[in-house]
Design brief:
By secondary structure, this protein is of the alpha/beta class. The chain is built from 13 helices and 19 strands. Strands 8, 12, 13, 14, 15, 16, 17, 18 and 19 form a nine-stranded mixed beta sheet that branches. α3 runs parallel beside α4 and α11 crosses α13 (429-442). The chain starts with a helix and ends with a helix. Residues 160-345 form the AAA+ ATPase domain. InterPro entries: AAA+_ATPase, ATPase_a/bsu_AS, ATPase_alpha/beta_chains, ATPase_F1/V1/A1_a/bsu_nucl-bd, ATPase_T3SS_FliI/YscN, P-loop_NTPase, T3SS_ATPase_C. Keywords: ATP-binding, Cytoplasm, Nucleotide-binding, Protein transport, Translocase, Transport. This is FliI/YscN family ATPase.
């Protein structure tokens, strides 16, 4: 068996090009750059430094080969790049994560975005595009993890190492719910992946939602919406790499990614730029290959590691269509999903979690015998209330004809009150179940 120090050195050397290899730009079109001269020394995923005369070099990533030429996607503006410009093969993407990254806001390449000096690098760089732990050697999920949001702790309980999706249309409250989770979940390290984020919202999120105390134990990886598609895609991979670093140290990591949809859109831009044929609603097949490669990396580490990545991914459903391709694919990969409903938000109940359409696949193993009847009764009441609510509002409902409906009309408002929770208020599962039990037995 190789010595650990030699293995680390070999892994670091493997990330470097074997020699200085140069090529030439021979074509520019849209987002793609055509390169010649690398021969068999370049591979898919390699980085290339484009050097226009008298201008700042631009990084690009090789995404395809066609007719003996490499096609790369630029990671910066192409203004000033000319036919015949020099291209140099660069190291593959890797991050040397360390404890100094805590409390920092960085771009996907590890460069600071908070105006501070670059963080001290770790001893061993980690490739950002790495496989998930072997399925047969992964540890099992850990104990229940309190999320601090009553609607989730009651109806979609989560275990350490679980992966949950937050599904909603735009403007329904995904970011607000993420902020509540950041303030309510107890974890050793929190990693945020802001993929395609609005630039003006970064400081608002850091100062208003996160705060200095939570930021001190967090790493924020951000790629704003005006960055190139490879940079936005790399933000998701970089955040996952940071989370894996701390997980492998035996720590409990909370990974919050906003959003998987923007990650998929970046993949679509890359695929279409290299002329990959569109398949499902304009998404190339490679999008649905990359999604599980990213999402499967979250979760427990290998047996004996002791750490786990509990991950929550937001999914933007276009036009409130929860069966659109990306949402459908992500829902099938993750261990549960939370649906945020616009009608609930418009009615004034926040967070607007539709508990009847939300699901945690680990709930049967999390809820104890005293909690299961409460959840079942609450679901039944909310379901019946949804059926008779319009009749009640129209004055067409009469009590005494259906005992189940009468119970729902009497108790549903109290259950809805339990689910209502202002931003900044945190609760624990025992408190949430006590409130639910009181609502079911006394009607509030």
């Amino acid at each position: 068996m190789p010595r650990p120090d030699l293995a680390a050195t070999a892994a670091a050397l493997d990330l470097l090009p074997r020699e200085v290899v140069t090529g030439t730009v021979t074509g520019l079109g849209g987002l793609a750059v055509t390169l010649e001269g690398f021969g068999p020394l370049a591979a898919i995923g390699d980085r290339v430094r484009l050097e226009p005369p008298g201008r700042t070099p631009v990084l690009a990533e090789i995404a395809a080969f066609r007719d003996g030429r490499a096609e790369a996607i630029a990671m910066g503006p192409l203004a000033g790049l000319t036919d015949g410009a020099r291209a140099v093969l660069a190291p593959r993407p890797a991050l040397a994560v360390s404890e100094a990254w805590l409390g920092r806001v960085l771009d996907p390449m590890g460069a600071p975005m908070d105006g501070l000096p670059p963080p001290a690098p770790g001893a061993q760089p980690r490739a950002t595009h790495s496989p998930a732990p072997p399925a047969g050697q992964r540890a099992r999920l850990g104990p229940r993890m309190a999320l601090g949001v009553r609607a989730l702790d009651l109806f979609t309980p989560v275990r350490q190492g679980q992966r949950l999706g937050l599904f909603a249309a735009s403007g329904v409250g995904k970011s607000t719910l993420m902020a509540m989770l950041a303030g309510g979940v107890e974890a050793d390290v929190i990693v945020f992946a802001l993929v395609g984020e609005r630039g003006r919202e970064l400081r608002e999120f850091l100062e208003d939602d996160l705060g200095p105390e939570r930021l001190a134990k967090s790493v924020v990886i951000c790629a704003t919406s005006d960055t190139a598609a490879p940079v936005r895609r790399e933000a998701a991979y970089a955040a996952m790499t940071v989370a894996e670093h701390f997980r492998d140290q035996g720590k409990q990591v909370l990974l919050l990614m906003d959003s998987v949809t923007r990650f998929a859109l970046a993949l679509r831009e890359i695929g279409l730029a290299v002329r990959e044929p569109p398949a499902t609603r304009g998404y190339p097949p490679s999008v649905f290959t990359e999604l599980p490669r990213l999402l499967e990396r979250a979760g427990p580490g290998e047996e004996g590691c002791g750490g786990a990545i509990t991950a929550l991914f937001t999914v933007l459903v276009e036009g409130d269509d929860h069966d659109e391709p990306v949402a459908d694919a992500v829902r099938g990969i993750l261990d549960g999903h939370v649906v945020l409903d616009r009608r609930i938000a418009e009615a004034g109940r926040y967070p607007p979690v539709d508990v009847l359409r939300s699901l945690s696949r680990t709930a049967p193993g999390v809820l104890d015998p005293a909690e299961r009847p409460l959840v079942g009764a609450a679901r039944r009441i909310l379901s019946t209330w949804g059926e008779v609510r319009d009749l009640v509002r129209l004055g067409a409902y009469r009590t005494g004809h259906d005992p189940v409906a009468d119970e729902a009309v009497r108790l549903a408002p109290a259950v809805e009150q339990v689910l209502m929770q202002p931003k900044g208020e945190a609760s624990d599962p025992s408190e949430a179940f006590a409130m639910l039990g009181a609502a079911l037995t006394e009607g509030g």
